[in-house]
Amino acid sequence: MRKPIAVAAALALPLLFPAAAFADAHDGAETYVAQLGALNSSGASGTAEVTVEGDQLTVTVTASGLLADQPHAQHIHYPEEGEGSCPGGDADEDGDGLVNTSEGAPFYGGIVASLTTEGDVSPDSGLAVDRFPTAPGGEVMYERTFTVPEGFDAAEDLTESVIVVHGIDVNDNGEYDMDGAGASDLDESLPAEATNPALCGALSPAGEGGVPSGLGGSNGIENSALMLAGAGSIAAAAGVVLYSRRRSTQA
């Protein structure tokens, strides 16, 4: 006669502990996310996600509002000291109204990985403009898996890292040129428009045990309460059924 109770408990457990079930399904993987905000009045926006599993990084960048059909260099940056962050307008040391890469570097650090579409991902490919997304229609939808860079402790260092996407159009002529902002501070053969940052976002853990951040906060608490109530209802319903059967048997 105890079997219905065991069945009810089995039905209730997944509802009581959904986070644990989710964590088990993604055991060994850690995910970090960033909201990408506009720099240099780019008007762009986006998100980034970095998942670490073993010695592999899977990076996803989704962005819109970028200069269309032009290469956009993008990187994971990591500061030598402290947590990485995104520069504000006060980082414009030369007073030209723009934050160039050198002015932003003290905030977000040097390149750890170049988010190229193919080939090398080391800092050496930081300006490999022929291997970065070209933003058709102003949008980037990038995903790539590669080996964690040597010397980079991804599980620890990603919490202090920053995603930066470069490439702006200062004079609104639909291309990178020297007339917009002069030559790049990194390579005088390139326009500054091509290397100045357009988007920036600091990475943070998606959630404890790999649970997405959307399950946290008040929404997560409310959802958990609803699930607990639902689990209780199932158990109670099973009890009513069992009680009714007992009454029927005794009758």
β-sheet strand percentage: 15-25%
Question: Would you list the SSEs in sequence order as H and E?
Answer: HHEEEEHEEHEHHEEH
Structure classification: alpha+beta
**Biggest sheet character:** 9 strands, antiparallel
What's the pLDDT, averaged over the residues? Answer: 80
Low-confidence stretches: 1-26, 208-251
Q: What is the CA-based Rg, rounded?
A: 25 Å
Number of strands: 9
| End-to-end C-alpha gap | 16 Å
Helical percentage: 25-40%
The total count of helices amounts to: 7
Shape type: globular
Would you write up a description of this structure?
This protein has 251 residues and is α+β, with helices and mostly antiparallel strands. Helices cover 30% and strands 24% of the residues. It has helices at residues 3-16, 18-25, 101-108, 154-157, 178-181, 192-195, 217-250; strands spanning 29-38, 45-53, 56-64, 74-78, 110-114, 140-147, 162-166, 197-202, 204-205. Strands 1, 2, 3, 4, 5, 6, 7, 8 and 9 form a 9-stranded antiparallel sheet that branches. Helix 1 (3-16) packs antiparallel against helix 7 (217-250). Mean pLDDT is 80; it is low at 1-26 and 208-251.
Features:
251 residues, alpha+beta, 9-stranded antiparallel β-sheet, 7 helices, 30% helix, globular, disordered N terminus, disordered C terminus
Summarize the helices and strands and which ones pair or pack.
Blueprint: H1 3-16, H2 18-25, E1 29-38, E2 45-53, E3 56-64, E4 74-78, H3 101-108, E5 110-114, E6 140-147, H4 154-157, E7 162-166, H5 178-181, H6 192-195, E8 197-202, E9 204-205, H7 217-250
Antiparallel strand pairs: 1-2, 1-8, 1-9, 2-3, 3-6, 4-5, 4-7, 7-8
Helix pairs in contact: 1-7
